[in-house]
Design goal:
The chain is of the alpha+beta class. The protein has helices at residues 2-11, 19-24, 45-57, 109-116, 135-141, 148-151, 182-205, 229-233, 267-278, 318-328, 337-353, 376-379, 424-430, 459-463, 475-487, and strands at 15-16, 38-40, 62-65, 80-83, 91-95, 100-103, 121-122, 158-164, 170-173, 242-249, 251-252, 257-264, 286-289, 309-316, 331-334, 364-369, 381-385, 390-392, 396-397, 402-407, 496-500. It has a five-stranded antiparallel beta sheet with strand order 5-6-10-8-9. Strands 15-12-14-13-19 form a five-stranded antiparallel beta sheet, with helices on both faces. Helix 1 (2-11) packs antiparallel against helix 3 (45-57).
Length: 501
């Protein structure tokens, strides 16, 4: 690959193929590892486009990397990794009148928030990794965050994208009317052919519940959605185009934020109350339990009321928060910014803690479409092993969102004969497009679903049973999952057990 690296350096001087740099970029927040051939940090869009052209000429894959906070291996690859965060990281413009901002792909979310704050504005989506998440990465995976129930996902806040295609074409897609000629016009015609041919399947299979984020957003290409190619590209992880710049919408900062912390005996009780809280119109409704606290931590030290499960509900105004507190009891209303920040820090740190088992080794966080109704009746059971360390726990966005699960770091594929009793309908649900977990990188996943013709399903596929049609996760599905997982363990390994809620 000497010729490739030399050609990359000729067009993008900050190209590094040293062992150290390649090792640094061989992992992200997932369990997966891919050592790249080289890492490129372009200084501008021209260098970025030239680096992509060189990679294409050498038939080497390109992986666009944001902050590397992906839990599904999205930011790693065996070819050329391009990192825009080092040099292409500017907020190009904030327009307070239009409530928009124009950014380069490598700008960190906190930097955009700081630029918008003097105008009383902010970018709505705010994942827990906001201190390092880049806008390019957020657009790549359609990031959401705690305020998504109020301000939507990244896709709901993207207006225009400047993108680069594999053939070197640059174009802007989004709010502008499609051109009548040229490469862009041809793309729009092809999109119309696609939706004309497959429109019924797209309408029935995609965007059926909030934050159905896996797969491609083909529903944004439908005529009734305005054939918005920019929004269709959000969540495509750089597989269709490379982002050069983006114009995004901003929202007004609430005048007075108050954080209502509701305490419960466990997270299932908290989830039962979730729908009633959401009906009050909060800005957030986040779930948290003791599994996401540091071992031995005192919840009260972080400002949490006594309990083992909590809802973090932010309101625009203390009056609304106090009214909700009086209704639900066992609550604390925090208006001091420092106190609110301390509680949110617990939630933000939870994602990192969730990828560690109790012995300190790394587990893996798998994400599935969340339940439209959550709670004890719908969550089925809790997973514990005989030690008893946590095998799986739900946390985060309880309503219309994604439930996240902690699984052991090495999960064997499970053959079909271990899943006797799973109906054909259920098997279909585990493999439906947009229902199963975020896709894993080819050749890197220890939990990727088996090919359909083998009749086997992995733990990842089974977790996909959380779908709109299965708002009740039946106990037999969970038993099948745990029994199948136990069957895959090495001889003599203590089996995992089910603890009923």
């Amino acid at each position: 690959m000497t010729g490739l690296v030399s050609a990359l350096r000729a067009v993008a001087p900050d190209t590094d193929d040293t062992v150290r740099r390649r090792a640094e970029y061989s992992s992200d927040a997932s369990n997966y590892r891919h050592v790249p051939v080289a890492v490129v940090c372009p200084a501008d869009a021209d260098q970025l486009a030239a680096a992509v052209a060189v990679a294409c000429a050498h038939a080497v894959p390109v992986t666009m990397r944001g902050a590397g906070t992906s839990v599904a291996g999205n930011a790693i690859g065996p070819g050329v990794v391009i990192d825009c965060a080092r040099r292409m990281n500017a907020v190009l413009e904030v327009n307070p009148d239009a409530r928009t901002a124009r950014v380069q792909p490598g700008v960190v979310l906190d930097a955009l928030q700081a630029a918008a704050a003097p105008h009383g504005l902010r970018f709505g989506p705010d994942p827990s990794t906001h201190s390092r998440a880049t806008l390019g990465g957020m657009i790549g995976n359609n990031a959401c965050g705690s305020h998504s129930i109020a301000w939507g996902r990244t896709v709901d806040n993207v207006l225009d994208l400047d993108v680069l295609l594999a053939d070197g074409t640059r174009l802007t897609v989004g709010t502008e009317a499609p051109p009548s000629a040229g490469r862009a016009a041809g793309l729009h015609r092809a999109m119309r052919v696609l939706t004309d041919r497959h429109g019924d399947a797209i309408r029935s299979g995609l965007d059926r519940f909030p934050r159905q984020a896996s797969g491609y957003g083909l529903h944004h290409l439908l005529p009734e959605r305005g054939t918005n190619l920019a929004r269709a590209l959000v969540g495509s992880e750089g597989t269709c185009a490379v982002l050069l710049a983006a114009t995004v919408a901003l929202v007004p900062v609430p005048r007075e934020r108050a954080l209502l912390v509701l305490a419960f005996d466990d997270l299932a009780d908290a989830a039962d109350v979730g729908p009633a809280v959401v009906a009050l119109g909060p800005l957030t409704c986040e779930g948290l339990d003791t599994a996401l606290l540091p071992p031995g931590a005192d919840p009260s030290a972080a400002g949490l009321p006594a309990g083992r499960g909590w809802l973090l509900c932010e309101f625009d105004g203390a009056e609304a928060a106090h009214a909700a507190a009086a209704r639900f009891g066992r609550a604390a209303v925090l208006t001091d910014p420092a106190a609110r920040a301390a509680v949110w820090r617990v939630r933000e740190d939870g994602a990192g803690l969730a990828t560690r088992l109790r012995d300190g080794t790394r587990g893996g966080t798998q994400t599935c479409p969340g339940l439209l109704q959550a709670g004890r009746a719908n969550s089925g059971c809790w997973f514990t092993d005989s030690q008893p360390d946590t095998v799986a726990h739900e946390f985060g966005h309880l309503l219309g969102a994604n439930d996240e699960y902690q699984l052991p770091g090495s999960v064997a594929e499970i053959p079909a004969d271990k899943l006797a009793g799973l109906s054909e309908e259920d098997k279909k649900l585990t493999t439906m497009t947009g229902i199963q977990n975020d896709e894993q990188p080819a050749g890197a996943s220890p939990v990727a679903p088996l090919p359909a013709q083998t009749g086997g399903y992995s733990v990842t596929g089974l977790m996909g049973l959380h779908s709109k049609e299965h708002t009740e996760v039946k106990g037999r599905h969970i038993r099948l999952l745990v029994n199948a997982f136990n069957a895959s363990l090495p001889p003599g390994t203590p089996p995992y057990q089910i603890k009923k809620l």
